[in-house]
Amino acid sequence: SWNGPPGSTSSQQWADLLDRTDFAHVLGRRRSTRFYTRLGNSVAAVGVARMGGASGADTGQGYIAIARVITAKQISEALGIDATLDVGSSSSRVATYRGSRAAIAVPLIGADGRAVAMVRFAVPSDATRLGRRVLVFAIAGSIVLLLFVLIVLRRLIAQLVLRPLLRIENHMRRVRASGSLTLLEEDERRDEIGSLGRNFNAMLQQLKDLREQIGVQSFDLGRSESAVAVMHNVRNALNPISTILSREIAQVPPIDRATLDRAIEELARGDVSDERRQKLAAFVTAAVDADAANRESTRHELSIGREAMGHVLEIIGQQQQGAHERPALEICDVTAIIARNATIVRY
C-alpha cells in the first residue's frame, strides 16, 4: 500500500522498486534486513522482513516491505548538528579537514551494496582529535596489557615447564658425567612433566637393576672361568703322574725272578762245570745290572711324578689362599665425606 499522494512519481518508483528487487537475495538466511533506495530526488529507508517460519527459510508466503522517506532535516534533528543529504554522490573520502572543522561524509548503502546517497555534516576538529587520542590510548593500553599478559605467561611457562625440564636435563648430565644412577627427586605433579620425571626414574631404576645383574653375572662368570683354569692346570700337572703310573703298571720285569733263583741255586752246587758256572755268573751279573737300571729308571720317573704332584698342591694352595684372603681396603677420609655432604645440604 502507498500512504503518499496517489499517482505520484514516488508511488510509481516504489512499485518499480518492489518489482525489480530480489528480496530473497537481499535477505539471504536472515529474517529481516534494511537498506536505502532512491525515490526520484528523495532517499527512503526500506525495511524488509520475511513472512513465515522462524528458521529463516523461504516458505513462499511473501515479504513485508516498509519504506520511509528521509530528509536532511530529519537527519539534522537526529544528529543534533546541521547535515545535508547529497543524492547521487558516492565520494570515497569519509573525512575532510578544513581549518578547525572536519567535514564527515557517511554513505547510505542500497540493496546492491552501493551507495545511493551521502550524508554530510561538519564537526569541530577537537572532537576528531579527541577520538584519535582515545584510539591511540586504547591501542597503547591494549599493547601494554598484551605485554603484561606475555610477561605473566613467560613466568608461568618458565616456572611450570622450563624449570622442571631443566632440572631433569641437569640430572641427566650428572648421570652421564658421573655414572651414578641416583634417582631424581620426584614432585607431586600429575601432568606431563611429572609423568616424564616418573618415567625417567623408572628408567634409572631399571638401569641400576641391570647393572647389579651384570655385576653378579660377571662375578659368577669370573669365578667359573677361574675354576676352569684351575682344573685345567691341575689336569696338566696330573698328566705326567698318570703317565708314569700307567707305564710302571704295564712294564714287564727285565729278568724273570724264578729263572734268576734257579741260576743262583745251580751256582751254589759243587758239581757244576767251570764253563757252566761262568755262563751262570755272567747271567746273574747281567740280571743284577738290569734290575739296578730298572730301579734307577723308576726312581727318576717317581721324582718327575713328585714334582708334578708338588705343582698340583701348589695350585690348590694358591686357590685356597686366594679364597681366604680379604681384599685390600682403601683409607676412607670420613671428614671429607661429611664436609661434602654438609656443603650439598647447605646449597
Q: Mind explaining what this structure looks like?
A:
A hairpin with a 2-residue loop joins strand 1 (32-39) and strand 2. Among the domains are: 1-70; 192-327. The protein contains 8 helices and 7 strands. The longest helix is centred in the middle third of the chain and has 59 residues, at 192-250. Helix 5 packs antiparallel against helix 7 and helix 6 (257-268) packs antiparallel against helix 7 (274-324). The chain starts with 8 loop residues before the first helix and ends with a helix. The model has no long low-confidence stretch (mean pLDDT 78). The strands form 2 sheets. The chain has a 4-stranded antiparallel sheet with strand order 4-7-6-5. A 3-stranded antiparallel sheet has the order 1-2-3. The chain is rod-shaped and about 195 Å long. It is of the alpha+beta class.
What topology emerges from the helices and strands here?
Layout: H1 9-20, H2 23-27, E1 32-39, E2 42-50, E3 63-70, H3 72-79, E4 83-87, E5 95-98, E6 101-109, E7 115-124, H4 125-178, H5 192-250, H6 257-268, H7 274-324, H8 334-346
Antiparallel strand pairs: 1-2, 2-3, 4-7, 5-6, 6-7
Major sheet details: 4 strands, antiparallel
Number of strands: 7
Distance between the termini: 92 Å
Strand order of the largest sheet: 4-7-6-5
What is the overall silhouette? Answer: rod-shaped
SS strand fraction: 15-25%
Instruction: List the secondary-structure elements in sequence, H or E.
Output: HHEEEHEEEEHHHHH
Helicity, as a percent range = 55-70%
Taking pLDDT < 50 over at least 5 consecutive residues as the criterion, the unreliable ranges are none
Give me the secondary-structure category. alpha+beta
Radius of gyration: 62 Å
Average pLDDT reading: 78
Number of helices: 8
